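Translate sequence into structure tokens.
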Amino acid sequence: MNEPRHLRTAAAQFQFRGEPSAFVPYGNGHINDTFLVTCQAAGAPARYILQHINRHVFRSPATVMQNIERVTAHIAGQLQDHPDPARRVLTLVPARDGSNWFVDADGETWRVYRFVEGARSYETATSVEQAFQAAEAFGQFQQQLSSLPAPRLHETIPDFHHTPKRFAALEQAIAADVKRRAARARPEIEFALTHQSITGILLAANLPERITHNDTKFNNVLLDDANGESLCVVDLDTVMPGLALYDFGDMVRTTTSPAAEDEQDLSKVAMQFPMFEALVRGYLATAGFLSKAEKNFLAFSGKLITFEVGIRFLADYLNGDTYFKIHREGHNLDRCRTQFRLVESIEAQEEKMNRLVESIAD
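Result follows.
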């Protein structure tokens, strides 16, 4: 499906400025196939992002796109007086039939965004300022969507952050052991089982439902090449109803450690407290809608979401790597080990983290 002829067939359905001349794989996403498209246009080349939506993960691509249409339009409506609106929210490029996506003869769904020039994403944060900028961006994203009118957004992946159900799926994977991998993952399985008690804490806290991004990796924020400031949030497939703390927790998971998500040298994995402080300050600077109860769980959310993602990697490893893309043998087990080591680092500092949040939130 990813051969040039298929890309050109899909690309021909969209209203590009100029004729597509080059298709280059782009980014490091686990789920969708993404390509940078360069078009030859009068004056200067124009660039776009062409994506194929993974329908095995997103069973209803149309509902994904309906959410994205509403979310981007709502944010764009709040940027009418902004001096640089085109770089502050993703812009969908319509297909030739006027729709914002295209379904090919094989039933595969494609979309196109304008490429945001003069900006980039980074796999890991290298400074507290970068961490602050990312948290500020995600807090603003939630704040902007707090006024989105009814109807409720679609749940593009039902129960995406329902940690008890994620844990139940892990238990099923352990019991089935379809690839006979459980013995190799015995220490990780034992770690997961000893942490089962934390899985239902947020769901039992009676927190308000918000519109959330649900995949707040550091690399899902574009930073300005010129000044390092956050521009806009990307990767909107999982924007849907959820708890605000899911987003903050995933920021802690992906921003506070200097190690990559699949780092094999676990000595490099640690929750850096200055990074956490930057996240708290940046997020609270823009997420003005948060309740006191939500603020009380900011530190815990990092531990929970890191653990949740760890058990998802572990379950996928046991099931034969059917969900996340892998690039080497045992890749998902490496990812799991990295998450669990980060959980341990958060636990060692959790009391200090809570004191910090209290001092800033008051």
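Note: The mean pLDDT is 95.
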